[in-house]
Amino acid sequence: MEREIRLVFMGVCGCGKTTLARRVAAYLGCGDIIEADEFHTPEMKKKMASGVPLTDEDRWPWLERLNEAMRQVRRPWTVVTCSALRKVYREKLACGLTESVIFILLRAPKELIRERMLQRQHEYMPVSLLESQFATLEAPSPDESVIEISVEGTEEESFKLLTREIERLSCPSAL
């Protein structure tokens, strides 16, 4: 079997995970993305819509459902979105898939993310939750497989940075 790589686009709400993940999936020709938002229960969406951040206890079953979905897909490239804000969340998400999961942390200053969030509509993620997202975000540790990408520029600039990293990953000696 050909090697399988799972690219998990991570970061705070409004950083561009879905937008960039869809572009990368199209670039790779790997089909639909696994979108974490689709794995939240209606209760959790209602909780967030009311401005209440999720707890670890809220997130564990969600991360387990995402992990199971990632395990189901058997193809060279799989593209996933998930905030994956803490190291323990990333570990839970990659459980059993550790060697093939590469996280892509999309970074930009809080003020820029806030501006972008104010210009979009989201089913349940209000701008008021951005503060808690930044407070929860843990910087990747050296032992994690994380690529950091600045999303401070345009979508096109971020996409070009991503394609360069993907080309590097495509070389067998890079892994």
Features:
globular; about 15% strand; about 180 residues; alpha/beta; five-stranded parallel sheet; 7 helices
Would you give an account of this structure?
The chain has 175 residues and is of the alpha/beta class. The protein has seven helices and five strands. It has helices at residues 17-28, 42-49, 56-72, 87-94, 110-118, 130-136, 155-170, and strands spanning 5-10, 34-35, 77-81, 101-107, 146-150. Strands 2-3-1-4-5 form a five-stranded parallel β-sheet, sandwiched between helices. The longest helix is centred in the middle third of the chain and has 17 residues, at 56-72. The radius of gyration is 15 Å and the shape is globular. The model has no long low-confidence stretch (mean pLDDT 89).
Task: Please outline the helices and strands.
Blueprint: E1 5-10, H1 17-28, E2 34-35, H2 42-49, H3 56-72, E3 77-81, H4 87-94, E4 101-107, H5 110-118, H6 130-136, E5 146-150, H7 155-170
Parallel strand pairs: 1-3, 1-4, 2-3, 4-5
